[in-house]
Amino acid sequence: MGSDQASVAAIHVESAEASEEERLAALAHYDVLDTPSEEAFDRVTRLAARIFDVPMALVSLIDGHRQWFKSRRGLHLQETPKGDAFCCVTIREGAPLVICDASADPRFAQNPYVVDEPHVRFYAGAPLRTPEGHAIGTLCVMDREPRSFDEEQVAILGDLAQIVMEGLELRLLANTDALTGALSRRAFREEATRALHLAARHRNEISLINLDLDRFKSVNDTYGHAVGDAVLARSVRACLGQLRKSDVIGRLGGEEFAVLLPQTGPRAALDVAERLRLAISAETHATPEGELRVTASLGVVSAEAGATDIDPLLREADAAVYRAKAEGRDRCVMGRSATREKPGRRRVFKGGRILFNKGASTIDCTVRALSPTGAGLDVSTVVGLPERFDLAIEADQIIRPCRIVEMKDRHVEVEFA
């Protein structure tokens, strides 16, 4: 290859890396990953499955290491590794993609989702494109049998994809949850971040409660969504009756809520959580079959002095809720205090690759935090992940040797060697 050709190739690589960094930043802006299902998006996948008479329809979002489904119909998986995703090709090409028979297409014939369950043969996907033009995911339909898909059907799929994007845009505009009156997820995060910085500046204590209604899915399944909605609204009202005006409650999604308690230490926060638990369980809800009572599991954490990032607090509180449910539900569990960020550590959302076996083995990851001394990574699985590896962040054009210092679920903290 001549020097001019090499220069052009390098420019193309740099352009692709910059474009991917911008795409991931656009995805992060919507703050939708790992949120519970929402009827606005489930309605679209139901419509798509009916219109095109297919067994599978998905709203798929692609981050640095995985394909995650905001809505799924006919597929039990919540996410899959990025490398095997048909939708990555749709995003890369930036246009609707139709595969009439994946088993006959050399790009996909050996794909694990073609060879094994769910035995995909037909795929059609339309990009979910932001107003700025970034493709953050797809609306796709799939079948286990080969089939054709004409131009009119492609246009209809594109219109449905636009409806999904309009739903994502509306989520950004809402400051309060229309059903419960709690702050929206985005508004709660913004208010919590502001309160954490204020607490750090004045050296005040601050705590957070994560609250999840127990067995709520069975409420919806047994009594219907109207009763479920009433349970959510009354549960929030019961909580508000126990909170101060300075406290903040937000709906993170589904039946999950968070409460921020300014100027509150761990002991007092645990007392508040217990009052919330009792208030929720004391509520009675009318159903056609008689009165219903629900309970909640709560996780409580306090921020260490100087902590300003809401994400570690939410993670620790969520882990405490998980323990509360494992111990029998209807209880409060104290979590580990969220530590102050290391100097220079900042929140990021970048695509990365974990390299080991002298570069012969790679695992996609999403870099969620960076500092001069380490990083926080999300991966699809920690199975087979070595203790030491190289971390490549293409957007920053760096490769750093790393050592794992902490693993929790699919989040990995590393320090640079």
What can you see in these coordinates?
- With 417 residues, the protein is of the alpha+beta class.
- The chain folds into 3 domains: 22-173, GAF domain (Beta-Lactamase, 2-Layer Sandwich), CATH 3.30.450.40; 185-334, Alpha-Beta Plaits; 346-416, Thrombin, subunit H, CATH 2.40.10.
- It is built from 10 helices and 19 strands.
- A hairpin with a 2-residue loop joins β8 (248-253) and β9 (256-262).
- α2 packs antiparallel against α5 and α7 (216-223) packs across α8.
- The chain is globular.
- The two termini are 36 Å apart.
- The relative contact order is 0.10.
- The model is unreliable at 5-14 (pLDDT under 50).
Helix/strand/pairing class, anyone?
A: alpha+beta
- Low-pLDDT runs of 5+ residues are 5-14
Shape: globular
Number of domains: 3
Number of strands: 19
Largest pleated sheet: 6 strands, antiparallel
User: What is the CA-CA span between the terminal residues?
Assistant: 36 Å
Give the strand order of the largest sheet, numbering strands 1, 2, ... along the chain: 3-2-1-6-5-4
Helical residues, percent: 25-40%
Q: In CATH's first tier, which class of the largest domain applies?
A: Alpha Beta
The proportion of strand residues reads 25-35%
Kindly summarize this structure in a few lines.
Residues 204-337 form the GGDEF domain. InterPro entries: GAF, GAF-like_dom_sf, GGDEF_dom, Nucleotide_cyclase, Rev_trsase/Diguanyl_cyclase. With 417 residues, the protein is of the alpha+beta class.
